[in-house]
Every structure is written in C-alpha cells, then in structure tokens.
C-alpha cells in the first residue's frame, strides 16, 4: 500500500512538472540569412560582388536570441526577449556592436488586458504596419529608397515603454513612449509612436505615426552623435545618398498607412508614407526635408513552396531639396523545408533631381544618386542590385 501511495505521488509530481514546463519556458531562436550580392554601381560607377551585406539582410536580418514566459496565474504571464543581430559573413555583431542590439525587454501580458513591455524595442509602425507590406515577404530589396521612412526597420528605440492591446474583432492598437533622459528637458531625445491595425480574413489595414527627437543644445554633429545627449531612436540613414545630408535634423516624423488583400493564391498591397526631417538652429539645413512615398506590390503563391512577387516604389523629396526615386523590385522565395528557404531578389532604381550634400558643413544641392532600399550602396543616377541567398531559421 505504501509503495502504491508513493507511486501515485510520483506520478502526480511528474504531471505537475510537465504542466509547469508547458506554461513556463525559455526558447533559443535565430535566423541566418546570407546571400551572394551583385551591385552594378556600388561606389559611383564601380561594380561590386559581395557575400552578404553588413548593413542589412535580404529577406531577414540575421539574429540570435532567447525569449521566455512565466505563468503568474489568473491569465497573467511575465515575458522577456533578448535579441542581437550579427553579420554571418564576418560573425561581427550589428547595431553598433551591441550584445542585444535588436531587442531587450521584459514585460507582463494578459489575454484580457494586453501587453506592457519595457526596454529596447521595435516601434508600433514596425509591429503593426510593416507586416502587411512587401518587406514582410521579400525584405530590403523592396524597401523605400534610403529607408527614409523606416520601412525596413533601420531604427530601434531604447528606454521605451510599450502597450499592445488584445485583438478585438480584428482590431488592435499599440502605443509607445521612450524617455529621453535629459535632465531639465523632459521632451528632449524622446521617441513616441502610435499605430492601429485591422486584420480580418483576407483584409489587412494599418496606420501609424512615429516621432523621434534629437537633443540639440548647440553644435550638433549628427543623429545619435550630438553634444549633450543622444536620441533614444537611431536614425534612418542606411542610404546616405538619399537622406544622409539631413542627419543633423532636430526630429524625424513619419506617418505610414498600408493595406493588403488576399484572394486565392494572390496578394496585392499598397502603402503610403510621409517622412519629415525637421531642422532647428543646430541643424546644417534650414528648411524641413519631406519624403513622400507610394508603393504597391503583387505576390503569387505559385506552389505551396514557391512564392513570387513584384513591387514598385516612388519617392519624392521636397522642401530643402527636390529629387525623385523610381524603384522596381522582383523576388522569388522557395521553401526547402519549414525552416530553410532559398531566394532570388533584384531591384532597379533611377534617381533624378537634387538632394543635399553636407560635406562642406552646410547642406547644399547636389545631383541625386540612386541607393536601393536600406542596403546603403551609393550609385550613379541608376542602380541594379541582385541577391541570391539562403535563409535558415532555428
């Protein structure tokens, strides 16, 4: 009888341990995305063959991370994520050599009340608007010229507090505030954003607004490198040829809206963004530089394993200088398994008009040059990029 009682108790403890294991977990995960890349005009008129790209992934930036949750009872759980980016070509850390340069946050989540998280995080436009753009399917080759609107997630934010609502009848909202930490000037170096999304069946619609401030008492040296304090959000300057002259902006304001519709094996989508790089007395330019971008894409799921897509993006800058960027992109992604795929993406961009040049210490007009997506290669007035890659998730 005693043996039977002990056996029953042992089985009960094992069952309880199994349930606890299911409710409380830590997961290691990651992505390795590597490609052979060709650019016809990478440094002016020079051709480039390279393995990968140090400033951007193709379909997804390579990363390694861990995430976990603990069931606190009553539908409440504690969560955390630690995630760092790396360049698989060299093994070097990305995002300024930070250990967890992509994400580092802790929070509480409830199915009834939503989720609150604290730390280094993505903003609401990345969380809610980006998933229904072509960046979600084919990445950087379809991004806005120079990524002036953070279409490809060039910017990340520290010291942030974020709230994500539960999904109610397809609707979800997210609010976000990052404390600048400047003594005596609460609003300086802050970032704030809000976005909303509706996803129901074949329809997805989302919109949001993002503002990042760069503290500037005097003698600003550039975004994230000003005298005094650095902003909480890094700048969207992956394409220096497009917006690099405006790195002395006091603030960057971005409004974005996107929508997609799925019918059978087809997905169509469109997006619009307005980005404003605003100046003050410490900036190297006097007039707000505005970038208006319209985009469209069409995808076809040819087979369960093969996705093909094409997209078009048009960006017009105005204000301090005026330029036009026309970009066409194509892509094909073939899944070898649930975790491994091979892909081929390409883009052509043509630039015209004038952009800014800050090399003399003040922004002056210069001929606009092409710079596809967030890759950061500076071309002539045109540029072609092709990337053949392999992506593995673990």
Would you kindly provide a written description of the structure presented here, covering whatever features stand out?
This protein has four helices and 18 strands. It has 394 residues and is mainly beta. The N and C termini lie far apart (48 Å). The protein has helices at residues 2-23, 124-129, 135-138, 240-243; strands at residues 25-39, 48-51, 63-73, 76-85, 103-110, 114-121, 157-164, 171-178, 191-200, 203-213, 251-263, 266-278, 289-301, 306-318, 323-335, 340-357, 364-367, 382-393. Helices cover 9% and strands 49% of the residues. It is globular. Strands 1-3-4-5-6-7-8-9-10-11-12-13-14-15-16-18 form a 16-stranded antiparallel barrel. The protein has one domain (25-393): Porin (Beta Barrel), CATH 2.40.160. The longest helix is centred in the first third of the chain and has 22 residues, at 2-23.
Short description:
This protein has four helices and 18 strands.
Low-confidence stretches: 1-21, 224-229
How is the biggest beta sheet arranged? Answer: 16 strands, antiparallel, barrel
Evaluate the radius of gyration: 23 Å
The number of strands is 18
CATH topology: Porin
Q: List SSEs in N-to-C order.
A: HEEEEEEHHEEEEHEEEEEEEE
What proportion of the residues is helical, as a percent range? under 10%
Strand order of the largest sheet: 1-3-4-5-6-7-8-9-10-11-12-13-14-15-16-18
Amount of beta strand: over 45%
| CATH class call | Mainly Beta
Rounded to the nearest angstrom, the distance between the terminal CA atoms is 48 Å
- What's the number of structural domains? 1
From the coordinates shown, what is the CATH architecture?
A: Beta Barrel
CATH superfamily: Porin
Count of individual helical segments: 4
- Overall 3D shape: globular
Mean residue pLDDT: 86
Structural class: mainly beta
């Amino acid at each position: 009888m005693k043996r039977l009682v002990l056996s029953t108790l042992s089985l009960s403890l094992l069952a309880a341990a199994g349930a606890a294991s299911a409710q409380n977990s830590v997961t290691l995960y990651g992505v390795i995305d590597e490609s052979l890349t060709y650019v016809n005009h990478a440094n002016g008129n020079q051709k480039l063959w390279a393995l990968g790209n140090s400033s951007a992934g193709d379909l997804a930036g390579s990363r390694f991370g861990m995430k976990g949750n603990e069931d606190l009872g009553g539908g409440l759980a504690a969560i955390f994520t630690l995630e760092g980016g790396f360049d698989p070509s060299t093994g070097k850390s990305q995002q300024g050599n930070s250990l967890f340069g992509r994400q580092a946050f802790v929070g509480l989540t409830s199915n009834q009340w939503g989720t609150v998280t604290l730390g280094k995080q993505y903003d609401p436009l990345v969380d809610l608007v980006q998933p229904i753009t072509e960046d979600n399917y084919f990445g950087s080759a379809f991004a806005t010229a120079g990524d002036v609107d953070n279409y490809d997630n060039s910017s990340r934010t520290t010291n942030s507090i974020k709230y994500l609502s539960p999904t109610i009848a397809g609707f979800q909202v997210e609010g976000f505030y990052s404390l600048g930490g400047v003594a005596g000037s609460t609003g300086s170096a802050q970032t704030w954003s809000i976005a909303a999304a509706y996803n129901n069946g074949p329809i997805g619609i989302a919109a949001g607004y993002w503002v990042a401030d760069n503290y500037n008492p005097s003698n600003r040296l550039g975004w994230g490198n000003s005298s005094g304090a650095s902003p909480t959000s890094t700048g969207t300057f992956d394409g220096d040829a497009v917006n690099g002259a405006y790195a002395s902006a006091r603030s960057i304001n971005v409004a974005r809206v996107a929508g997609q519709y799925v019918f059978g094996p087809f997905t169509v989508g469109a997006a619009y963004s307005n980005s404003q790089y605003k100046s003050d007395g410490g900036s190297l330019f006097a007039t707000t530089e505005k970038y208006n971008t319209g985009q469209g894409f069409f995808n076809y799921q040819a087979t369960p394993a093969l996705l093909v897509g094409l997209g078009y993006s048009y960006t017009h800058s105005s204000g301090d200088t005026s330029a036009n960027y026309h970009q066409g992109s194509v892509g094909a992604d073939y899944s070898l398994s649930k975790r491994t795929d091979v892909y081929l993406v390409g883009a052509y961009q043509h630039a015209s008009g004038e952009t800014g040049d800050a090399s003399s210490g003040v922004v002056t007009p210069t001929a606009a040059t092409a710079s596809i997506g967030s890759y950061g290669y500076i071309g002539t007035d045109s540029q072609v990029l092709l990337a053949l890659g392999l992506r593995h998730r673990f």
